Amino acid sequence: MLKMPSAFRLVIPVVLLLCAGLAISGCDNASTNNSGSSEVRLQGAGATFPNPLYQKWFSEYNKTHPNLKFDYQSIGSGGGIKQISSNTVDFAGSDATLTDQQLKEAPGELLHIPSVMGAVVMTYNIPTAGNATLKFSGDTIAGIYLGNIKKWNDPKIAADNPGVKLPADDITVVSRSDGSGTTFVFTDYLSKVSPEWKDKVGTGTSVKWPVGVSAKGSEGVTGQVKQSPNSIGYVELIYAEQNKLPYADVKNAAGQFVKPSMQTVTNAAAGAASTIPADLRVSITDAPGQDAYPISTFTYFLVYKDQKDKDKGKALVDFLWWATHDGQKMATDLIYAPLPAEVVQKDEEKIKSITSSGSPLYKG
Amino acid sequence: MASSITPPNTFEPAGGPGTMSIGARSRGLSASRIGDGIFKYATLLFALGIAALVVIIIVSMAQNSTLSVARFGWSFLTKTNWDPVHEQFGAGAFVYGTVVSSILALIFAVPVSIGIAVFLVEQAPRRLSYPTSFLVQLLAAIPSVVYGMWAVFVLAPLLRTYIYPAIQKAFGFLPIFQGPANGLGLMTAGLILAIMIVPIVTAVSTDVLRAVSNSLREAAYAMGATKWEVTKVVLGAARSGISGAVILGLGRAIGETMAVTMVIGNRPEISEKLFGPSYTISAAIANEFTEATSELYRHSLVELGLILFLITFVINMLARLLVWTVTRGEGRSHH
Fold first, then answer.
1. Taking CA atoms, which of A120, A275, A308, B111 is between 20 and 30 Å from A136?
2. What is the pairing mode between strands A249-251 and A257-258?
3. Would residue B302 count as lying in a domain?
């Protein structure tokens, strides 16, 4: 047995590890150099809500475009907006649209390109009601979250839910504690249907909740609702589905109680399509249409209209085209609602308008 | 600070490794040995680097909170309104939640920790003290998020279903126990924090008790004192050191983020109800920083961080001071 000073015995594996690390990263560099200028790396950051779908898109798209690498950090819509505004990423994801102020502060003209859609659902845990599907009007939801409706057997809830056994217990109101696009959509909806909400609370990724407890993340809210008897919370559809929690039908602008589903969410976008402004910055909560689910949202890619790097710009434009066309077919598998044809058409116009040094990048 | 629990009867030099390293510098630097010089300045550089880092952090945090400082001034510390939509920010409720949850944690953790330390140093036979100190240290190795998950899925339901209703039944006339108790709140946060700070308080208390001179114990026994009386004498001698341990635990509780945010209910309001929701500084930063889109909002969060930084800074200084006093006064001298 060879005798070594103990310090060396520690040093050798460390050195070996470092060598291995260098070798691996060296290989990486070598391959980058070998493939020459054709390798393009697109950096993105932003919304967490569409992240599972985006990752799927990136890996699928990479199969047919092996020279294109994506790096998307799901740091939240706010972070995405910040990064694209300071030009540290090539594209951003955001659930919220930029304000006029934010658009003005950005160093170039930013485009909003709706990528896919989602729904925020009201989920609840009422032991006496079991798995019965409750019905809520926007007014009732606002009342519960404002603290005006305190008990489950309140006449306002009971009127919309004949036959459901509602207890005389306090409602445990659960909200999101972390800033999120989900909260933005939910509060945007409440601001539209309740003047009192708009006045007292308003719309934002984080708001000052009048009542209840807040839990961290969608998992936190679902966990809390699942465990607390007589609670209510709001989460994205996929979380309610995965956790097998019941979710409510919500009364829409046309006065119908609509079950949240991929179809009814797409309906909401189709219903709102005629009123979508040219820059596509639009909220589709409380959208018109008989079968439109009212708490629906777009999530967006944010890209600069004028691309500084031609190769990157071309790759980005081709990807955006693919995502808004072929990519939509993958959305339903992951419980995201695909864009309706009317919106895809608007996306096409936007993508075609992206240029690099004056010449359009999309070649068809 | 020695934070390991060494088995009983093996006396460790007071102060533990680290505290004396500067004191040994003056000896034996001969001019012919350049290596020593390089070594000295290299270590000096590292030491200064850390000090510089602290300064840089404070300065950059101050720079990144100028907007909220200018807008709200000192009222930021006392105002309790936190409304991102209307851009009204005040740290009062967060400071309250941070302080109260940490104090609750101390109330639960300190008696237990001192009990464990006394057991390890004064009572336990070797074969029992090893596994005990191992288990206590194991608690320190569990990641905070795991504590949080356990608290959400086990502790909170347990408290909501059995403990809180029982307390409300017995002591419901006290306002602090009134109101709805759904398992998320100050008390639950205090309990999970208590579990998390037991290891550090135990470890430091153990070291401090060991630093108490054996002659004191022998003298007490010689006077015919019982074991309990001897323990009282030892604890009396170790008083300020144990206070240091408690303050270190407090420092840790104040900065804890993940487990707390998962169970505290995240509601920025000052309320005397211990079963109701509250919010801490670190939890607020972790929750809201990623989606803080306006500059004033971001600056307010950074200012919250600055307040937290200063609180923990002061607490740690106090702890060092107390532990230093006890080790200098009662440990065997190194000078």
1. A275
2. antiparallel
3. yes
